[in-house]
Amino acid sequence: MERKIDVILCKINCSYTKKGIIQLAKEIRHGSGLQVAINFTAPYSSRYILAVTKGHFTPFTLVNSPVIVIPDKIPVEVLLDILTEFIYGRLSRHVKTVRLGRQEVAILKEMIFEKSDDDISNLLKINKKTVSSHKDNIKKKISANSKIDIFYAFSIFSFGDCELSSIDDETRYTQSGFFPENKYKMVS
């Protein structure tokens, strides 16, 4: 049986990252007997995707997203666990499920487009301190160290087409696996 893993390397041009992920897939194959194929050319699609990017934050997925975002600077054993659980259609204990509020999504969208706090405050007609508070909440949710970590962590998402704050139980991960009625199917 073959399992396919779609991986996007976002803002990373390091060949060692790619080689490391391939090596981990070989270790999983050796330990489980499963054929594991890594696809680095996968476009953002309706399948589950691992997105590896720069930054310092906790690996996470959004409640209604098929994407697991992983920083490139995580321990090898954590990445191995994330990959292994992903292959079996489960969410690793190292991956946080994050829910964003509507205001956080609106602020995040503007942050990704490099708007200042003043610009965001004026655009959304909210106090500058409220903007700052929401940004701090977003940082806490993914254990990010800085604004640039937030940028790297969320720049993989398309803010124009998707409502990241809506809750859709059909697309939620669980610790025991993906819901069977999931509209995003794992390839097996």
In short:
The chain has six helices and eight strands; from the N terminus they run E-H-E-E-E-E-H-E-H-H-H-H-E-E. It is of the alpha/beta class. A six-stranded mixed β-sheet has the order 2-1-3-5-4-6. A two-stranded antiparallel ribbon has the order 7-8.
Strand order of the largest sheet: 2-1-3-5-4-6
Helices and strands, in N-to-C order? EHEEEEHEHHHHEE
Number of strands: 8
Q: Spans with pLDDT under 50 lasting ≥5 residues?
A: 165-188
Attribute tags:
18% strand, alpha/beta, two-stranded antiparallel sheet, six-stranded mixed β-sheet, elongated, 188 residues, disordered C terminus
Tell me about this structure.
The chain is α/β, with parallel strands linked by helices and 188 residues long. 38% of the residues lie in helices and 18% in strands. The protein contains six helices and eight strands. It has helices spanning 15-32, 76-87, 102-112, 117-124, 128-142, 147-154; strands at 2-10, 35-39, 49-53, 60-62, 67-71, 96-98, 173-174, 177-178. It has a six-stranded mixed β-sheet with strand order 2-1-3-5-4-6. A two-stranded antiparallel sheet has the order 7-8. Helix 1 (15-32) links the parallel strand 1 (2-10) and strand 2. Helix 1 crosses helix 2 (76-87). The termini are close together. The relative contact order is 0.18. Residues 165-188 have low confidence and may be disordered.
